[in-house]
Design a protein that fits this description.
CATH architecture of the largest domain: Sandwich
Strand order of the largest sheet: 9-12-19-14-15-17-16
Largest sheet: 7 strands, mixed
Oligomer: single chain
Structural class: mainly beta
Radius of gyration: 25 Å
Number of strands: 21
């Protein structure tokens, strides 16, 4: 009797488990969706001028849902050359959500909160006054640059990988790019993130070889800054050291002029809002110091050309700088008290000349205190 009862109980348990498995939704695998099944909602938008502000898309997302934004066309926002979507197209979820730009012309993301998706075109040289994307008070004076900008938004019914694989099987070549951008996103060094008010890009990726740990930048017609927070006192003993290898210099003319202000650099940010950046110039003599020629940045950024010309490109070079001496010489005025961040900068939006550089092994020394900026993965 006991044996028969155990068999019956086991049979009932197995039956219950079978019912549960049949009722439970199975996880989607890449390739299981068709293109029509993948799209839960789709909307197309056009922007005719640069002062339209924030616009609702009509697509509402729940936390955890995925969507893809495709920016179409390169537009002129007052820069010498047209720019692509990653430099002008911004988004937020809800009226109070944090803003984010599309990191590339095809950008897939997963919502972290509930709300309706909003899109906006932000003109060159203007920056948000807060994380929700409030335009500055002088935004009304921006010329209404004519645009022919478009954005397509796709809300996915399932996992983004499965949806993108399904769409990549269509005749639309954009989806192959969207899939590769989503699955091969470059990884940043530990504790680095994009400076939020400038936005994301795809030009930075972590770099490591037997002797160097750092970050590689390979921009063409893109811009951005990645930042790591620091908290280091600044005094006469403070030194910064770094290795760099430049393959190509992006500027077409002297970087002191706004229309040629394309460069790759490493910088320190201070507690007074200033930053000091060291770079290799293709057109200025080594030792040249100058305030950034761009509006807004001319109040907060100063450049020092450490090397110049073409000789030595493709080779590693090591530098050590006295932070306080460089600051006193290049910036002047009241001295900051602390270093609050390290930046790696890519300005590549004023010409179509590619640049490439690696920054590695950066250390900030203050007496016996040594801060390693880049950590091994």
């Amino acid at each position: 009797m006991r044996l028969r009862l155990d068999k019956t109980r086991t049979s009932l348990l197995l039956s219950a488990a079978t019912v549960i498995l049949l009722l439970a939704p199975l996880p989607l695998k890449a390739g299981e969706l068709t293109a029509s099944e993948a799209v839960a909602q789709h909307v197309e938008m056009s922007f005719s001028h640069s002062r339209e502000g924030w616009r609702k898309t009509g697509i509402s997302l729940r936390s955890g849902q995925a969507a893809t934004i495709i920016g179409d066309g390169a537009v002129n926002l007052g820069l010498p050359v047209p720019v692509s979507a990653s430099l002008f197209l911004w988004a937020r979820i809800g009226e109070d959500g944090d803003v984010f730009n599309v990191a590339s012309d095809t950008y897939t993301f997963v919502a972290e909160t509930d709300g309706e998706l909003h899109l906006s075109v932000r003109p060159a040289g203007f920056y948000w006054t807060d994380r929700r994307g409030t335009f500055p008070t002088d935004f009304g004076g921006v010329p209404q640059y004519p645009l022919d900008a478009k954005a397509a938004v796709y809300l996915w019914s399932g996992a983004p990988e499965a949806a993108l694989v399904a769409m990549a099987g269509t005749d639309d070549a954009r989806w192959q790019l969207a899939l590769s951008r989503h699955t091969d996103t470059p990884q940043l060094p530990d504790e680095f993130e994009y400076l939020w008010y400038l936005g994301q890009s795809t030009v930075f990726e972590t770099y490591e070889d037997a002797a160097h740990i750092g970050v590689r930048a390979t921009p063409t017609n893109e811009g951005g800054i990645i930042r790591k927070a620091l908290d280091i006192p600044l005094d006469e003993e403070t030194l910064v050291s770094f290795d760099w290898l430049y393959e190509q210099l992006p500027a077409k003319g002297p970087e002191t002029e706004a229309q040629y202000h394309d460069y790759l650099s490493i910088a320190l940010e201070f507690d007074n809002g200033q930053d000091l950046t060291w770079f290799w110039s293709g057109h200025l003599e080594a030792g040249t110091e100058f305030t950034c020629p761009l509006p807004w940045w001319d109040q907060r950024e100063t450049h020092v050309a450490v090397q110049s010309g073409e000789e030595g490109l493709g080779e590693w070079h090591s530098h050590t700088r006295s932070v306080l001496q460089d600051y006193q010489s290049a910036v002047g005025g009241e001295l900051p008290r602390r270093i609050v961040g390290i930046w790696v900068i890519n300005s590549g939006i004023f010409g179509d000349k590619p640049g490439e550089a690696i920054f590695a092994n950066m250390k900030v020394r203050n007496g016996s205190q040594v801060t390693e900026v880049f950590d091994s993965k």
